[in-house]
Amino acid sequence: MNAEDGRGGAMMRLDAFGHPPVSVGRATSSEESSSSTPLYVTRPLLPPLEELQPLLQEIWERRIVTNAGPVHQRLEAALAEFLQVEHLSLVANATLGLYTALRALPLEGEVITTPFSFVATGHGILAAGLEPVFVDVDPDTYNLDSKQIEQAITPRTSAILPVHCFGRACDTRAIEAIALEHGLEVVYDAAHAFGVEFLGRSLTERGSMSVVSFHATKVFNTLEGGAVVCRNAEMKRRIDQLVNYGYDGEDTISIGMNAKLNEVSCAVGLASLPYVGPALRRRAEIAEYYRSALHDAPGLRVIPRPERQSENNAYFPIEVTEDHPLGRDGLLAKLKDSNIHARRYFFPLLTDLTSISRAIHHAPRSDLPNARRLASRILCLPISPTMTLPDAFRVVRAVRD
Length: 401
Ligand code: T4K
Known about the structure:
Low-confidence stretches: 1-14, 20-29
Bound molecules: ligand T4K
Number of helices: 12
Distance between the termini: 29 Å
Largest sheet: 7 strands, mixed
Mean pLDDT: 92
Strand content: 5-15%
Strand order of the largest sheet: 2-10-9-6-5-3-4
Radius of gyration: 21 Å
Number of strands: 16
């Protein structure tokens, strides 16, 4: 899948997020959103170029462009502080982050996970030489159903890998209690969960490790990138070794990959961090508007806001139910005709992808009815810090009309 081009049109003064200076949240705004402007499911948060420039200058002068250079060190420290976590390792992307986390523990045999996720969740497990065992999701949270986990545990199970789907916290307490009872590790795929707090603390502090994505499509990005958050300095050292081919001095102690984050990506992250707060506020305003405008739309379901956590509004999923006149794919096509590019995250289910279904044919399979229903219903509407309130009006009009 490819990224589309950005907004065209005449030059105008744009704010730090690249959108015209119009205030989201004020229904009186007179700005229009033209159907000639494409609205994508997301747009990356980018820092003002002039604030990136001095960091690039430094990198150019130093000619240290990768291999845990000085900007890498600064971003790692800044993110640990921002997220209020103690041990964080930057990685080239969350897919390699998942691989690295699973290799670092290290694990064997089967890993219980969700079928309602992006392919990286399944591939990360398989690449680490493990077998994913798919358990159905809770239809009200879209996350792994903790009540169904125990039935899937076998003598070969070594870990549970839940996904905080769309940034909604999993049932961490139930999952971790099951893990404790059965001697299992818990590695969270927190790709969507940057900045989310749960019970007043970073959600990434849960379990043995959490893996966050800093891909361009995420709430905070380093173009490509990610981080593994772990519990102690010894584990961080092991992760850092695995990210660097497994080197410990001149020897390699484990099958590590090259998962290092380069200096330019780190500079983008460092320059973007001050804008994460405003970007989260912009996302919250759009989500609030969508929620109020769509809660009673016929044939649609918007799940209630999650409790006991902060929201990053990384995605805005709606369920298009069976009584909708167009159905999910019909609505997707209709929006596309209005130059609005919603996405079917996540379709197909992981168990229906060839690379994964081939690899799991010995594992117990069940029907996974909740995940299957969601994969046929969910549409993620555009939400990003570059969107304006009129853009959101336009989306709602196209969805409801
Ligand atoms: N676990 C979970 C649960 C995940 O969702 C993901 C990734 C991972 C693990 C692995 O994380 P990473 O290894 O990627 O760090 C996207 C992303 O590539 C992927 O990171 C993300 N999840 C997944 C849900 O979505 P696509 O193929 O849908 O992206 P694409 O290129 O179609 O972009 C979507 C829209 O974003 C475009 O229509 C326009 C906009 N866009 C995109 C890019 C790349 C831009 O405006 N600029 C850009 O540079 O996969």
